[in-house]
Specification:
CATH class: Alpha Beta
Oligomer: single chain
Strand order of the largest sheet: 3-2-1-4-5-6-7-8
Number of strands: 8
Radius of gyration: 19 Å
Bound molecules: NADP nicotinamide-adenine-dinucleotide phosphate
CATH superfamily: NAD(P)-binding Rossmann-like Domain
Number of helices: 11
Helix content: 40-55%
Shape: globular
Length: 322
């Protein structure tokens, strides 16, 4: 009898966890502001785009698949009631395409109030530029995109404060960073453990990029009046395609992925709340790492300033910035 009650209680707690979550409450309206959300065509990015569009911003979603992107624009417009939602094609795995995208963005858009670097993958494949897809899409592409968009972000920051929001993940906790070998070669037969280790490493890099970017921005703007930058963990996102491409090759991977998401994921609406919080809440700590709408203290292996500086230099070199 006691066991049955305990089991029912656990089940109820789990259902509550799965179906409900904290919601970011704010009266802030975003009319006149422009948001760029990479990977806004599915999962977390789409949920974020809907909520930002509801508040009146001009929203541009950027992703690889044009058809999927255009379809998502229709859905975001419908759910938000905002017609100023647009799709722009962007392949973060291709640095030339990132440069083309920025050129097109600057030609079309007058301002950028918030860049949400959300797109990310779990993959064992190589990209066309010879780097692993995970390093390319999760790190190199967003790093180059952010740096090339800095002039338009700076320009906009003369009118009002602007933000860069980088979607990382708590998997960084289990990750290690080898600065002499950022681009671990995986391939089709890579084990799940190796793939997740490299995924974690790319998310650790995203955190380091955010803290180093903040440091560089603060050198000229100690009061945080202009551009601020944040990293975050969104929780485990339901309705995601993350890792689907990798896991379909093995029944075991497919099952483990299904089990993980079935047990721990929440609807994207709840997972995007911390993204919204980092996009809009006042008084946040620039360079900080947020989860569940709270500032989290990073573990020591994620806050070594020497690693941050060396990583930044290395990424500048790898992306051809210097
Ligand atoms: N899912 C989770 O539980 C979880 C947990 C922690 C952190 N995160 C992070 O949250 C972010 C969003 O995850 P999600 O679950 O929403 O993923 P998702 O459903 O798989 O969506 C990924 C988005 O990224 C885009 N994308 C993929 N490759 C791209 C490329 N080369 N260039 C441009 N866009 C590309 C996709 O567009 P196309 O399909 O058109 O390529 C899609 O819009 C990722 O950074 C992920 O690492 C997720």
């Amino acid at each position: 009898m006691l066991w049955t009650i305990l089991l029912v209680l656990l089940l109820l707690i789990w259902i509550r966890y799965k179906r409900f979550g904290s919601v970011y409450k704010t009266d802030i309206q975003l009319n006149g502001k422009t948001f760029l959300i990479t990977g806004g065509s599915s999962g977390l990015g789409k949920a974020t785009a809907i909520e930002i569009a509801k508040r009146g911003a001009r929203v541009i979603i950027a992703s690889r698949g044009e058809e999927k992107g255009q379809k998502s624009v229709g859905e975001i417009k419908l759910k938000s009631g905002n017609s100023h939602v647009y799709y722009m094609k962007l392949d973060l795995s291709d640095l030339d395409d990132v440069r083309r995208f920025v050129q097109e963005f600057i030609e079309k858009e007058e301002r950028l109030d918030c860049l949400v670097n959300n797109a990310g993958v779990i993959s064992s494949m190589m990209s066309q530029n010879g780097h692993g897809e995970m390093l390319s899409i999760n790190v190199l592409g967003p790093f180059l995109l952010t740096n090339l968009l800095l002039p338009v972000l700076k320009e906009t920051s003369f009118q009002n404060p602007v933000r860069i929001v980088n979607v990382a993940s708590d998997v960084y906790l289990m990750a290690e960073l080898d600065l002499s070998n950022l681009d671990v070669t995986l391939g089709e037969n890579a084990t799940m453990r190796n793939v997740l280790a490299q995924y974690g490493a790319t998310k650790l890099m995203v955190i380091y990029i955010t803290t180093e970017l903040n440091k560089r921005l603060r050198a000229n703007d100690p009061q945080c009046n202009g551009i601020t930058a944040y990293a975050l963990h969104p929780g485990t996102v339901g309705s995601t395609t993350l890792g689907a491409g990798y896991s379909h090759k093995s029944k075991f991977h497919t099952f483990m992925r299904f089990l993980t998401f079935a047990l721990t994921s929440r609807p994207p609406f709840y997972c995007c709340q911390t993204v919204l919080y980092c996009c809009m809440e006042d008084g946040l700590q620039s360079g900080g790492y947020y989860a569940d709408m709270k500032l989290n203290d990073l573990w020591p292996h994620a806050k070594d300033p020497t690693v941050a500086r060396k990583l930044w230099d290395r990424l500048e070199h790898m992306t051809g910035l210097y």
